[in-house]
Amino acid sequence: MYKEKEQVPEFEDFYVPFGGHLREDNRWVRLAAIIPWEEIEAEYKKCFSKRIGRTAKTVRLALGSLLIKEKLQLTDEETVETIRENHYLQYFLGYESYKDEKPFDPSMMVHFRKRLGPDAIAKINELIAKRYQEQVEAESEKKQNKKNQKDDHDHGNRGQLIIDATCVPQDIRHPHDVTLLDEARRKTEKIIDTLYEASELTIKPRTYRKQARIKYLNFIRGRRRTKKEIRRAIRTQLQYIRRNLRTINELQNKVPSTTLSAKQRRDLIVIHEVYRQQVQMYKGKTHSISGKIVSISQPHVRPIARGKAKAAFEFGAKLSASMTEHGMIFIDRLQWEPYNEQEDLPTQIEKYKRRCGRYPESVHADKIYRTRANRAYCEARGIRLSGPPLGRPIKETLENKKIVRQLRKIQRLDEAIRQAIEGGFGYMKRKFGLGTIYEKLRETSETAIMVCVLLTNCEKILRDLFMRFLFLLGFKPHKSYLKVLVY
């Protein structure tokens, strides 16, 4: 059951028992002002029954707690304690006065991430970004009307779309086939112990766990391991796992199905798939397979080939993002399986049209997006795709010297514009929690990613409001400084 909260008082009326008042220029007061809490609550309460169930927490408390956690990069426990200690955070969450008590149990943070979900956070991001974009466009139209200038692009393409893809690393142990098999073997041994205790057997099945552990430690402690030694270690661990899985099947026929916990049943299903994949790779003498599991606790995580300097592979979700000319970032695709981001260009352009009501005038993308199919798609809609044209570069002569230099200047400018989304990715990974996702479940990890994007857009709106305030005071920064302010 969801109970609507009464009107939240303004920050001037927020009661602080130890004296004083809230400051209007505080970051949490300013952030609370740009989030449409009432509209979000109207959609949030539809997920609850009006009569049955315990009264749920308000959406402002749920969403606000997630925003606080990602903005301050805290754990769930530290988030609850920080909210209890800070009256500005309590105002941000919709409190009427300061309360020196925990707002909820830290385990509720998991329920908040599940209940809101990535789709709901994405809708909130769309709502805030669309409102901000409409406000900026309305102000620009007023300036044009004052100058009596006519816009020739009212009925055509307008605006810029910047697209790129990145990988969000997940907090898992660096995957190694032998280490993964050793973990699977140890989990099967605990499952055998649980089933044996519930059975009527007098002799415990043999697992050779001590010998298996000694062989694994002797292998993993070696500094330089040859291919032959790695294959021998994999074969040894596979033999122990095969024996344990056979024993588990025999014991499951003698005990009730409810003997194992839900976590053990889930791990057993994952271990069966890990064993199948490792046997297939061992026989095929390869280290890659479609849908390869690299973590038993997080089987949804996949290796993503990125080709970065520090590592050829990253382990986490891959997402395709787009940025408008006003600096708003949207996640157009979030997937755990690897894919080629060049396929997303038509979809991202159509989503831009749905958000803005028109096609962009230009699309700024990396080299991987400049395929013949994407070029033809953009040309058919009158969209200019950044980058040099196909074919050999034009040779500079006396006749075309000005034209060639102008083309080079446009290409440099396009690349400079494209760097804005790279700065956005870096900003989210350094300042917010996008650098490493610590949530374990697939749904909660996706929610955390969407919250980071929502926070980034809110921070961009607050920075723009601050710059407008400086302009009103007469501050006029250099043009190069304005370019850096994007991210």
How would you characterize this protein structure?
This is Transposase. The chain folds into three domains: 150 residues, no CATH class; 156 residues, Nucleotidyltransferase, domain 5 (2-Layer Sandwich), CATH 3.30.420; 108 residues, no CATH class. The radius of gyration is 28 Å and the shape is flat. It has 487 residues and is α/β, with parallel strands linked by helices. The C terminus is likely disordered. The chain starts with 26 loop residues before the first helix and ends with a helix. It has 15 helices and six strands. Strands 1, 2, 3, 4, 5 and 6 form a six-stranded mixed beta sheet that branches. Helix 12 links the parallel strand 5 and strand 6.
What order do the helices and strands come in, and which of them pair?
Layout: H1 27-34, H2 37-44, H3 59-72, H4 76-85, H5 87-92, H6 108-146, E1 160-169, H7 177-198, H8 209-220, H9 227-252, H10 262-284, E2 303-305, E3 313-324, E4 329-335, H11 345-356, E5 362-364, H12 372-380, E6 384-385, H13 401-431, H14 442-472, H15 479-484
Parallel strand pairs: 1-5, 5-6
Antiparallel strand pairs: 1-3, 2-3, 3-4
Helix pairs in contact: 3-4, 3-6, 3-14, 6-14, 7-8, 7-9, 7-10, 8-9, 9-10
